Each structure stands twice: as structure tokens, then as C-alpha cells.
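Q: What would this chain look like folded?
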Amino acid sequence: MLHVNENYSKIKPTYLFAEIAHRVAAHQAKNPGAKIIRLGIGDVTEPLAPSIVAAMHRAVDDEAGRENFHGYGPEQGYAFLRDKIAKCDFQDRGMDIRSDEILVSDGAKCDCGNIQELFGTDVKIAVGDPVYPVYVDTNVMAGRGDIRLLPCTAENGFVPPPETAGDADIVYLCYPNNPTGAVATKAQLQAWVDWANAGKRLLLFDAAYEAFVRTPGIPRSIYECQGARTCAIEFRSYSKTAGFTGVRCGYTVVPDELVAYASDGSGVPLKPMWTRRQTTKFNGASYITQRGAEAIYSPEGQRETRATVDFYLGNAKLIREAMCAKGYTATGGVDSPYIWVGVGSKSGDAGDSWAFFDKLLAEANVVTTPGAGFGAAGEGYIRISAFNSRENVLEAISRLDKVL
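A: My prediction, written as C-alpha cells:
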């Protein structure tokens, strides 16, 4: 008899953003003439930087002739990109990360979801609450039921302290955070690194939004903390850094020192395991994509991509200030493209995040993301994304001003 993986019955039948898309489509069907402004899903709107486009065009030309044609590439990524990553993202910033510790992929979401395959189903997982759903759902799909939720609240600045993780073996951290937009100080991250090293634990650090950090002293990588090489894996993405949501490229850093443990207590290096997993199940990001990613690190690419990120941060500032001016509390929007708004923080407003989402959609034709979709602790909040044109952001603010 053919049996299903019954762990799938333990997760919600639809992914959060699929449910949002369903509600938006239903609203559009009832109001075909409505101009809907989407500030929900974190998808970019600005075009790729000119230097990236030019590099990808050259790469397409390479594929047009036998002399420079590229077929299957190295599953770990081409050396021309891995070398640039190691130098520009880490070594030039004082971190000891080598190119052979970097594995290029088609995005951080896949890597964050797939990394759990390296570990036994009996490991204890801890995640922040509210949380990016991928961290939880992929572990439940694999049969892990012992998932500890770490309360991320306004009281702790949405950065839980290590003692809340108890006896967890693996902790997912994401800073700048999705969905709350909060950032962690170096001292806060160092506390997590020290905790992990003391108990032979592992930190999975999602740094997808590091390019948005502008405040001096806020870490952009877990490897800025002493001792992180022995306890942390880091995930990076070009989706928000350089507009690659549709192009698909990112990478994961697995230092040589990282080990997990076999049943006999012996240490098992994780980098060879991740390499083996990727070479078995993944054929690598395309040559054209990786040439585009390489161009991000050129002087022109750095200027252009930073300007685009600054543009989104400008949108975030406008949204944050507008919501605060209406009497709502807001986190994020400073070193993050997300603004986390307390929908019950204004006197007289209900704290039901889905109801607030429906209100803004029905009355303002503005799409946000209900906080409850990120976990129980997200109830009472909505996430507003700064990814859109300036014209649409200003129009959305005007509509929200009238509705709220």
C-alpha cells in the first residue's frame, strides 16, 4: 500500500503567502477595476542594476558559441563567484571565511529549508516566534515535533535571549529579522554564539537582509562574533540585495570547524555533508545567473545595488513615519525593508491581524501581511513591506491615512 508522509498533515494546508494571494484574487474578482497596491510579500519591484544586466548579457553571448559555452557547472558554484564572495562579503570586513567554505545555490529559502536534512529527527529545534514559516514547516515535514518557540516581543526588542532556548540543539536566528524588522546588537549575537559553543549546539543564521543595515555597529554577519566559526552556518541571498527574486541566487557558508555528532559520540564535519547533499540533489545555479551575481561585487555593481537598497529604505522610512503618526507602534523600517506594526496599539483598534489585513484590503486596496501568519506571537501585528515604487508607496500611505 502506498503511504503518504503523514507529517504533512501537521502543517497548515496552504503556505502563508498562498493564502494571501487567494484572498487578494478573490477581492480583485469582486472589484475588477480596483488598483491594488501590494505591500505584503517581500518581492522586489526595481529592475536589476545595469552592470548586472550587462554581465548577464555577456554570459548569454558566451553560451551562444562552442568556445565559451558552459554546460553543467560545479554544484558548489563557480570559483569566480565564490572567490568574490569570500573577499568582498567577509575577508575585506575582517572575517576569516574562505571560498571553499561557500556553496552557491538558487536562494536562501531553499538552503534554509534543506539544511535540516543533515541532522537526525531527534534533534531539538528552536525558532523565534513570530518566525519565517520555512524554518518550522520544513522540520515538521521531516518528522521533528519538538520545536521550541522563543518569544520575540516588544519587551525584548524582538531578540530573545539564549536562556529561552533551553536544551535546544539547533536555533534559527534571522537578523535583520523577517518579519519584525528588528536588528540584533553584536553583544546579543555574541551571547548566542557563546551559548552555542558552551553546549555543542548549532546556530542557523539567516542574513538575507544584511544589505539593509545602515546603523554603525549592527552586525551584518554572525561571523563578526568571536567563536562563530565553530557553531554557526550562515545563509545569504541576492534576492533583496540585488533584486534577484526572479533570477534566483544565494549562498550558504559552512566553516570547516563545524561538526555534528554520530551515535558513538564522534564528531562528523558538516561541510562535506552539505557538499554531498548539494552535489546529489542540486545541479547548481546557472552560469548566466552566477555571472550576474559576480557583477554585484564590481565597483559599479556595489554603487548601483546600494542605491536600490537605499531607495527601499526610503520607502520604509515613509511607511514607518506614517503609521507612527496615526498612533500605531512600529518596529523595523530602519535597517530593514519591513515595518512591524502593532494593530492593537492604537486605542479602539482590535488586535486581530487577519481582520486588520482584510480591512486594509477591502477599504484601501492595500495588501499587507497578517502577523498571525508568522506564528502565535505575531497576532496583533501586520507586516508592511517597503518593496514597491515610490509612487505606489505614497499612494498607499494616502489611502491608509483615510481608512485609519
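The chain has two domains: 6-47+300-403, 50-298.
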